[in-house]
Design brief:
By secondary structure, the protein is mainly β. It is 0% helix and 50% strand. Strands 2, 4, 5, 6, 9, 10 and 11 form a 7-stranded mixed sheet that branches. Strands 1-3-8-7 form a 4-stranded antiparallel sheet, with no helix packed on it. Strand 7 and strand 8 form a beta hairpin. The mean pLDDT is 97.
Amino acid sequence: QVQLVESGGDLVQPGGSLRLSCAASGFTFRFYAMSWYRQVPGKERELVARISSNGVPTNYADSVKGRFTISRDNAKNTLYLQMDSLKAEDTAVYYCYGFASWGQGTQVTVSS
């Protein structure tokens, strides 16, 4: 059974940082590209960042380039998203995606 379990979401002030994690199981993680998406109420889910199976290349939405970093540890079957210089508009539920499966999401709220 495929499972993607996100963690690390929190309330943070503008300019702050968070690191999201996604623990994967039920498939051979190291063989698959992985992605982070985010969604706010009333809007479509949008791609934030993508990483290939071996970590290179990576791709980012223009809105997060230079502030977010996607990475993975294939030995730990874990995907990460380091988010720096957070803005109010980064507030969303963040989802891990891979092997045609979604995690349950983790809430990130950026507010003073």
